[in-house]
Write a structure and sequence with these properties.
This protein has about 850 residues and is α/β, with parallel strands linked by helices. It is built from 28 helices and 12 strands. One of its GO terms (cellular component) is membrane.
Amino acid sequence: MPLESNEPLDREDAPFLASGETTPPVQEEPSQYDAQKEANRKIRFRLMVTLFAMILAVEVGICMSNGPVTRIYESIACREYYAQYDPTQIGADGEVREELCKVKAVQQDLAAVKGYMEFFDGILSALLAIPYGLLADRRGRKSTICLSIPGFALNCIMQLVVMWFPNVFPLRTVWASSLAWLFGGGPVVAFAIIWTMMSDVSTEEERFGVASMGADFASSAASSWMMSLDPWLPLLLGWGLAVIGMFFALSLPETMPTNPSQPTWKQTSMEMSQVPSGSAEYKDIPSKEQEREVFSDEETIQSGEAAFTTNTTKRPFFAMVKHRFRAYMAPYSFILRNKQIMLLLTAFLVYRLSRGSSWFLVQYISTRFKWSLAEANFLMSFKPALTIPLFLFILPAISRQLLKTMKPTQKDLQLMRISIGLLAVGTLGIGLSSSIAVLIPSLLVQTSGSGFVFLTRALITTLVHRDETARLFTIIEVLQSVGNVIASLSITTVFQIGLEIGGPWIGLAWMMTATAFTLFYVGTGVAPFIPPPPPSIGFIQWIVWAALFWIRLFFFVPICLAYFLFLQWLPLPSLLRKAALWLILAVPSFWWIDLQVDGVRRGTLGNARHQARLPGPGSVIASSFTSPIDPLYLAAVFNPVFVACYPYAGEVEHLSLWQAIHRAFADPQPTPKPKARMVSLFSIMQKYPNRPIAMFPECTTTNGQGVLPLSPALLSAPHSTKIFPVTLRYDSKEVMTPVPGTYLTWLWRLLGRPTHYIRVRIGQAVVGVTAEDLPVVEPPTDEPHPDDNLPNGAPPFREDQVLVLQEQVPNHVAESLARLGRARRVALDVREKDEFVKLYRRYYWTW
């Protein structure tokens, strides 16, 4: 294993990047085990307490200072405005009454100052995050996070100087405080390291979130009360707490060996890789695919590091820059290789839009409803308080219910989609609120979706190996900085436009944010159902397609009618029946079939010893379902009995071949029709003992980009029945029918295209058995065994089948379908497709 090294990458100060050098593992003496365990326990406790104190102090400080900063900025902008247009409104103390500061010009100026300050902060943080991440690879995590201390202190001092001397410095001079993040990279680097440390030793990030939310509630309420006395009091107190919180980094345990190439037992005993992480729901054993990715990632890193040492003096300047940039980005290449990670990373960009609109929420409430900033800030203090029961009671209760029917990753995906939906509805309600009575319920709904970022972070962590989490969290923080940049420009501009228009359009920024949430919700929810785009063809090509279509239609329709009206009802020999079906496939030119079977090399499938790897009498074919061609091909090759299954039914419905083809065009059916004759899979197999059974356990068609939850009808197969996962993929995506009712469109694309190509993949048979039938694991011996390279917890298998517990059959079949089809598993089902079809038909005509 490439991850077994003397310098584990999952301790709290481990480098962000994997090292290219490995050393033999140190052999520990049994007598040292207790001492090592006690040392690890103390280090873990110290680390957790320090991180908790840092997060609590920084969260409380920032939350306490947000309202006062806005009020002081508003006061300065207001004084500048009235000094120019109406000096009589300036009091003897040099201040202007707050109610006079709600004019459009002052609020637009305030929005610009706050918005562009976030823009400059985001730009610098995004540019500095990766360099400081690479620095942490050489200096350790403690050293890197300690560099942030002067940055935080200098940022606060620069803003204080501008606010304390408004007659000397223009208000926009506060933008220069962003330069302080040159020291340490700012909050992006600091929180990336904190999240990495937390994920190394605990999966309790949500508990930190709950604690900080409780602190936010108390600090916001206290800040609102102190603002009514003097806004400088909560400002100085809040920033002081934040800076003190960063000083806690000095007490973080530093366990990085001084000479990694020559470790001693004392050094290795302090490594956090040995620290127990508790009952972690997401600490999965890496699959072989993940291990291969780790190998390739390490090779990329090594080559990247070697690139820096290459003599580049003779290279052209731009070639040298390109060479160094590729080496610079090599450690993060594992992210680009995983499409699931790329998809989930976009969620953090979208989420920052919500955070972007929240920058102006206090100002929005104060302006729209004529409240003071202290009153608006006090109302906002209840938002984190409402989040506490969500994390402590509501989300855990929903999670427990979903885990009864879903895997942890599916559960998180479903909760993530629910949360993003609540964010969309709540944010839209905030933007459209005409009174406080409408605003408060909208805030409640939006708050209910605040678990979105935690769920997404937990889900994305399961997709990488633990030595990659530091780099992953760095990229997440970089993306959130980019999101801040986008939000600061877009939200600031849109909010200013809303202030200019006035009236209900003041909430335009929240309407735009709700639209972004809705698009992300729809994008993650209907991805497996979106039809592929039509091919782009020129005029000459269109003429060729039209000619082929009419010529083939002349043969295709009579042959299909002859078979389905007459031949299929006759007692024809199996060979003649298959010949007729192949003739139907030959008309649209399905000449190229690429068939591959797990464990069989190309060209050897005809060997008698491989016949057990193919579906036969008494077995079940669990096939993907993307096109009407799927059942036609299966019938031409295996002559199976087709059955229909449903998402929540344990029984199946017997189908003819024509009915199976027609289901590819039919609307999704969550439940059987009232007159449907439902029978058990066992009874179908008894009735047709000499033929395999073919079923489409996803219960509806998809575009092949996702595997839906499978029907429980798979569980009704008798014990020891071979279930073969089968996927069919087409080079011409247009012959797929994820949207029902596209009869003529599909026929045009089928008969007009010159040729078609099918990739058929047959997986290893999954056999459900009882616990008593599982083979007994023999004690380990010194002799190698074929199963030694399997990940821990992998089911035992013979050469032609894998044995699993009966209740785990659907899960293993779904995993095989995802692997064979190069797709991801999703938590969507027939109900979501039904909703998508209804929405699709509102805007598109299907024919």
